[in-house]
Amino acid sequence: MKKENIHIFLRACVFAFALSGWCSVYADAFKTGHPEEYVVKKGDTLWGISETFLTESWKWPEIWYNNPQIENPHLIYPGDRLRSITVNGKKVLMVMERGNSTGSSSRKTMSDGSIKLSPKARVTPIELSIPAIPLDAIQSYLVNHRVLDSKEELEGAPYIISGYDGHLVMGKSDKLYARGKFIPNVSAYGIYRQGDPYVDPDTGEVLGLEARDLGLVKIIEMESDVATLALLSTKQDVRLDDRLLPTVERKVEAIFYPQAPRVEIGGRIIHVFGGVRNVSQFNVVVLNKGNRNHLRVGDVLAIYRKTGQVRDQQTNELIELPADRSGLLIVFRTFEKVSFGLILKAERNLMVLDEVRNP
Q1: What is the pTM of this model?
Q2: CA–CA gap between residue 81 and residue 95 (Å, rounded)
Q3: Is the CB of residue 288 less than 8 Å from the CB of residue 200?
Q4: DSSP, residue by residue, 185-222
Q5: CA-closest candidate to residue 147, choices 192, 102, 105, 180
Q6: Which residue, 330, 319, 321, 323, is CA-closest to 348?
Q7: Distance from first CA to last CA of the chain, Å, rounded?
Q8: 307: Cβ–Cβ under 8 A, 6 or more apart, which residues?
Q9: Domains and their CATH numbers in the chain
């Protein structure tokens, strides 16, 4: 994806509750004893701020109220002052004042004691507005990571046969050579290595194959079926037999705010990135549900852990205890049969094979 397209996506992600009007929830959605005001700090996320006010953090799009006195009230910045207020009998959250360090409103105390806010021009770049969730946790998974339908797709791709001067391991700026069937007029390729297959633990169906993103190369010269390549960037060492897949211009979802799934979802966590089995906050996980199950970017799912078995002392039977709700995740990328999700809340240790359901 082109750099400017990534910037466009991030700007859209940055504050995805950009709503034209306003919504509200009943007062009991707010935590008891929540603060009346909150000053936004650098490093905040909307999810984190919502946890200060709400019992259900993922419902923050429902409490936002557009303040017509504030320029771009759907974007908030460090230094902005938020306040919980009541509008038409419903409690909502609103930007009351822009922070002095970032721009952009003036305030005047009226004779009756009320405060009048007047908008002023903001020159702060949009990239400085706070994100909905920690974007640094998911950026590398938004575009380059792939889920392939079968291993044949990777096995049939061009492969690296040598580094410059016979090097077996290559890094950034190295020259290398690859062989295979290259696509005419395509000069940029991603470097991939076969990862684990994603298998549905309940049905045994192979849902896809992880293709690990290693870096990016550009074709310098072609001679027959051998290409001379420049290694533009790397995330890991590049080795012989690593495969090349053409880069793709992929439309990334611009609407990125929490929502309940539109259908009932009953799935599982089947993989966690990072080579571990235990799952914690801000880990990226793979779910065994995807587009064919009507999952969407922004869908929030509750995570349930099995609590184990106990023996009924009356009947001597082993009884499976009900699963216990232990966390929340948000889906940020979908494929046909699987999805990527970010763990936003973990109330206890989570694990691969934990269940995910509608919140």
Answers
A1: 0.74
A2: 6
A3: yes
A4: T--EEEEEEEEEEEE-TTT--EEEEEEEEEEEEEEEEE
A5: 192
A6: 323
A7: 33
A8: 321, 322, 323, 324
A9: 3-135 (no CATH), 144-246 (no CATH), 266-357 (2.40.10.410)
Q: How far is CA 342 from the centre of its chain?
A: 6
| 29 burial level (CB within 10 Å; 0-12, 13-18, 19+) | middle
| 23 and 79 Cβ atoms separated by less than 8 Å | no
Q: DSSP string covering 6-21, please?
A: HHHHHHHHHTTT--SS
Supply 286's token pair. 């793979």
Query: How does pLDDT run along the chain (359 residues), one tens digit per residue?
Result: 444 443 333 333 333 333 333 333 444 678 888 888 889 888 888 888 888 888 887 877 777 766 565 555 557 788 888 888 888 778 888 777 777 544 444 444 455 444 444 444 333 333 456 777 777 778 778 877 889 988 888 989 999 999 987 777 777 778 999 999 999 989 899 999 998 899 999 999 999 999 988 999 999 999 999 999 999 988 888 999 999 999 876 655 545 678 899 999 999 999 998 767 788 888 999 999 999 999 999 999 999 998 888 999 999 999 988 889 999 999 999 999 999 999 999 988 899 999 999 99
Which residues are paired to 328 by β-bridges? Answer: 302, 345
* Element at 350 (helix H, strand E): strand 350-351
How far is 98 from 287, CA to CA, in rounded Å?
A: 40
Angstrom distance (rounded) from CA 58 to CA 245: 37
